[in-house]
Amino acid sequence: MTTLIKQRVVWTGTGVVGGGLSIFFFDVASSGSTAALRAWFATIMQIVPVGTSVQVENAGDTIDDATGTIVGTWSDGTAQSIPGTGTGVWAHGVGLRVSWLTGGVTNGRRVRGSTFIVPMNAASYGTDGTIENAVLGAQQGAAQQFHDTMTSSHRIWTRPIDGAGGRSHPVTGVIVPDRVSWLRSRRT
Q1: Rounded to 10 degrees, what is the CA torsion of 106, 28, 154, 25?
Q2: What's CA 186's distance to the chain center, in Å?
Q3: How far apart are CA 53 and CA 122, in angstroms?
Q4: Residues 3-29: pLDDT tens digits?
Q5: 88 — alpha (psi -120 to 50), left (phi > 0) or beta?
Q6: C-alpha distance from residue 170 to each of 25, 31, 61, 112, 154 (Å)
Q7: Mean of the pLDDT values across residues 113-137?
Q8: Other beta carbons within 10 Å of 181
């Protein structure tokens, strides 16, 4: 059993339909996740339209990764709302994806996590429909810096089936693919 911090980043505003949530998991011995997430999202929000914001929460539940059961609470740093500063038009439901890599395998598949950055302002897209090179490079660099800061504690959690068999795996790398991603739902 590993105890994990479950940290939420709540998306709100005109660019978010139905509410949004990004969830991150960290080893319970971690500290500084709130500040690291705030720094990363401050960079991200430069391509997110004005009127959209994220709230990096600074307290929440801890869970047992094997069962998903809440086992306690955590707190770290100060909560902060970060507004989008991207200008111009944007499209609902599309943006980019950050892929968190692990060395873990569960049920014969590689364990990976994803964080979706949706919506993005139109200037973030290239004329060929992919992500603009400068945006892609900046977002890859920002995600890598977040990974480097939290490398020993950032984890991807595989949910248990019927209350057992859950696991968490340390994030070993990060890739921001040069492809537009879209949301079908914002599951919590």
Answers
A1: 70
A2: 12
A3: 17
A4: 999 999 999 998 887 778 999 999 987
A5: left
A6: 10, 16, 19, 10, 6
A7: 93
A8: 18
Residue type, 70: I
Question: According to DSSP H, which parts of 22-159 are helical?
Answer: 33-44, 133-150
Angle at CA of residue 158, ends 101 and 148, nearest 5°: 35
State whether residue 141 is helix, strand or coil.
helix
Looking only at Cα atoms, what is the longest distance across the chain?
49
Using alpha carbons, list the distances in angstroms from residue 166 to 77, 105, 133, 156, 176. 28, 12, 37, 11, 26
Alpha-carbon gap, residue 11 to 80, rounded angstroms? 12
Question: How confident is the model at residue 85, as a pLDDT?
Answer: 94
pTM for this structure?
0.91
Residue-wise pLDDT for 76-95, tens only, equals 988 889 999 998 898 888 89
